[in-house]
Amino acid sequence: MTKPERASLQDYLAERVQAIDGVLDRWVPEESIEPASIHKAMRYSLFAGGKRIRPILAIAAADSISDAASGVEHAAATLELVHTYSLIHDDLPALDNDDLRRGRPTCHKVFGEAIAILAGDALLTLSFEVLSRIEHVSAAQKIRLVEELARAGGTVGGMIGGQVNDLEGERKNATPALLDSIHRAKTGALLRASARVGAIYAGASEEQLEAISRYGEHIGLAFQIIDDILDVQAPSEALGKTAGKDEAQQKITFPAVYGLERSREMAEEERVAAHAALRMFDDRADRLREIADFIVQRKT
Amino acid sequence: MTKPERASLQDYLAERVQAIDGVLDRWVPEESIEPASIHKAMRYSLFAGGKRIRPILAIAAADSISDAASGVEHAAATLELVHTYSLIHDDLPALDNDDLRRGRPTCHKVFGEAIAILAGDALLTLSFEVLSRIEHVSAAQKIRLVEELARAGGTVGGMIGGQVNDLEGERKNATPALLDSIHRAKTGALLRASARVGAIYAGASEEQLEAISRYGEHIGLAFQIIDDILDVQAPSEALGKTAGKDEAQQKITFPAVYGLERSREMAEEERVAAHAALRMFDDRADRLREIADFIVQRKT
Question: ipTM of the assembly?
Answer without folding.
Answer: 0.95
